[in-house]
Each structure stands twice: as structure tokens, then as C-alpha cells.
Amino acid sequence: MDAHFTEPLTLADVAQVAGYSPFHFAREFSRAFGTSPIAYLATRRVERAKDLLRAANLTVTEVCHAVGFTSLGTFSARFTAMVGVTPTAYRTEHVRRGGPPPVPGCFALAWGQPQPRPTTSPEGDDGAGTPAGTTARSEKHSDTVRP
């Protein structure tokens, strides 16, 4: 759940990954963590939203969607219930206190996305038809040093 909290997760999905029925998973999760899986997920999303509201130049709606909520109303209600102020008031208070300058929203959104891992083919080339240990002709004259 922690690694995928920004994705649309259901209790059935998470329980299936764990190998339990949804009801058994919910009972065991609550016993282990002291809260329901849905409340835990909402808490993780609100924690991340607080970070984004303090540090990124994103609208409240963009933050809502970036952390995995699909409804701005639900996001605002959960945020207000957990934090005690609306998302907008939270951001305004942080700015008033002189927090760090906001990170551009496009960077904040890209940074939170998983990046593809480089792959190599089993034949020993780099996957682009260039044998391992060599570079394509256009790369030979590049100023960039490659390992």
C-alpha cells in the first residue's frame, strides 16, 4: 500500500495481493496497525498532500489527484478532518510562516512517478542494436562521458 498509495486501490485489490479475503485482510490489518486499511491509505495520502501543499507550486486540485484521491470534495473533507484546516488554509499558513520557495509543479509531479529501469537484452547489446561496450556513431562525438 505504501508504494502504490497514489493509485486507485480497493480493499479487494490489496487483499488479493496479500493472499487473503477482503474481510480477513481488513481484520488482520486493523489488528496489526490499529486502523483500517482504508483509513491508513487516507492518512498516507493526506501526509503526502501536506508535503506537496508546502513545497510544490500545484493547485489543490492537482495535489488531490497527485496523491490518489479522485474527488476534490472527499480530499478536502478528509484533509480538513485529519489536519484541522482546509488544504488552502494549510498552504496559506505555511506561506505566511515563510516556508521554502515552492518547487515547480511539473517537477514535483514527475519526481513522484516511477521511472523505467534501463534494460539490456540477453544477447549482450544495449537493446538498441549496439553491441555492449560500444556506442553508436552519433554518440562517439558527444561531450558526455559514458561508463
UniProtKB/TrEMBL annotation:
Keywords: DNA-binding, Transcription, Transcription regulation. Residues 137-147 have a biased composition (Basic and acidic residues). Residues 94-147 are annotated as: Disordered. InterPro entries: AraC_XylS_family_regulators (IPR050204), Homeodomain-like_sf (IPR009057), HTH_AraC (IPR018060), HTH_AraC-typ_CS (IPR018062), Tscrpt_reg_AraC-type_HTH (IPR020449). GO terms for molecular function: DNA-binding transcription factor activity; sequence-specific DNA binding. Residues 1-93 form the HTH araC/xylS-type domain. This is Helix-turn-helix transcriptional regulator.
